[in-house]
Automatic annotation (TrEMBL):
Species of the source: Marimonas arenosa
Known partners and oligomeric status: The complex is composed of two ATP-binding proteins (ModC), two transmembrane proteins (ModB) and a solute-binding protein (ModA).
Record protein name field: Molybdate ABC transporter substrate-binding protein
A biological-process GO annotation: molybdate ion transport
Family: Belongs to the bacterial solute-binding protein ModA family.
Pfam families listed in its UniProt record: SBP_bac_11 (PF13531)
GO cellular component labels: outer membrane-bounded periplasmic space
Keyword vocabulary terms for this entry: Metal-binding, Molybdenum, Signal
Gene3D superfamilies per record: Periplasmic binding protein-like II
Gene Ontology MF terms: metal ion binding; molybdate ion binding; tungstate binding
Gene: modA
Residues holding molybdate: S37, S64, A146, V173, Y191
NCBIfam families listed in its UniProt record: modA
Amino acid sequence: MPFRVPHIACLLVAGFLSLTLTAAGRADQITVFAAASLKTALDDIARQFSETTGHEVTLSYAGSSVLARQITLRAPADIFISANPGWMDHLETARLIAPGTRADIVSNRLVLIAHGPGGAALAPEELPARLGQEYLAMALTDAVPAGIYGKAALTHLGLWEKVAPQVAQADNVRAALAYVALGQAPYGIVYKSDAIAEPRVSIVATFPEDSHPSIRYPAAAITGRDSAAAHALLAFLRGDIARGVLVQQGFTLLEKASP
């Protein structure tokens, strides 16, 4: 009778190798918590990343402050992209950022928008007179990066005390954008990328870069969730495809990649 054990052993080994290779090459799911101002660009980037790698990306958008607090409470995020360094610093201090994964990926400009296309240009100093008794839409000025930058710019220009009583604060910058797009406020302060994404508003002024802290978007993996797929997405965000999308959507590339 022929001895069949080696043949069976070969089949078992082959099957084991097949399962191992399949497991190594399987698609993973990545959950990204990202600043609301990234939505239009990041939706496109995530789609292209998924098409390229097979990994599935779930995106959750809100104000950076809200997302950072959720991560502090152990919300299941794999990657966090903030609209300013402060909230990333907060998580890093709490040891919730995986070492060596943090990098600034992009910058932005702060703009004054008006309801409707083709709004007449104005100097920021003209805002109180143009505003009259109407509202100025902004993200939360003490918590959300766009609101913090906006308050800093208005303070630098000597305008904050004049307009503060008329500021309509929103949970995030996209909500402030919606106030203006819907005509609920004639003017608002948002990022350039937000204004480009919304055809119902127009940019009427750009705030001087030295009127507020530098706008930077750091991205990092969360401690204990820095998988190979998460690292792949972080690398993709710094690559040519993502950079092209970000520029097209009105973001500004940083001169040097930073970790």
